[in-house]
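Q: Protein A?
A:
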Amino acid sequence: MTMSQNQKPVILVAGAAGLQGGAAVTALLAKGDFAIRAIVRDKNSAASQALAAKQVELFETTFDDLEGLTKAAQGATGVFSVQMGSHPGNQGEGTRHAQNLMAAAKAVGVQQVVHTSSPECLDVPHPGPRQVGLLIAAGG
């Protein structure tokens, strides 16, 4: 099992500055068994700095950067993934972003992935979450 410097398994959290990802970070930190690494767009944002104050490791990248996502996933034993759905004009963006994160996790041997998405939670008809679910079920 891969461990961080403090000898705890590392969980990579995508969406850590949002409601779902933030709740996952809070729960994981409260349990005390894990080191948390968060994917952030801007390490200097107020939300990122709030995570850093909780001893969360920040990794700055985007979901379009497969190399950056792969580096972020390196050494993690698990991934908690929150993906937003596609916005008008960006059809398929949410699915593409999730596919990139799953490919990165698979490339470095992440053992477990938990994926959720906002459109799916709101029961909004959207093909992306189903496609991502099928991708995960197929192992990457």
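Q: Protein B?
A:
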Amino acid sequence: MTGPTGPGALPEPDLVERPHGLTVERAMKASPEAVYRAWTEGFDTWFAEPGTVRMRAAVDEPFVFVTRHENRVHPHYGRFLELEPSRLVRLTWVTGAMGTGGAETVVTVELEPAPDGGTRLRLTHTGFYDRAGAERHEQAWADHVLPHLDDVLTANARG
């Protein structure tokens, strides 16, 4: 489901003035189908505060959810730009001062089946104002968020 292009379609974010980004790759134990569902239907099982997600997996649909970190509430906003079941999730990502600084960044999650039944995940996050913001997010995605997603999906598969 590629994004709409006709009249009334929302434009792509303009990243020209925000050239900083990152790429993280990870071998996930779960199948591409399970990883895709986690990004489109199950955000409150691995990322967001349970009960705070307002999300419908459709191109150009806005979403909002809340996370908590160090006793502070952090709202996240965005919309889906592209969806290809079990292959691709592309969305905008907007957070506050300690996140994207209010910039509409773009997260692209590419999924490939791995020979062991798992998934090769490649996450690209672009559109940061500065290198420091991109580096903070790279560390978070690589060291905390994606390992946590892998752990949650593995535990769910075991039942």
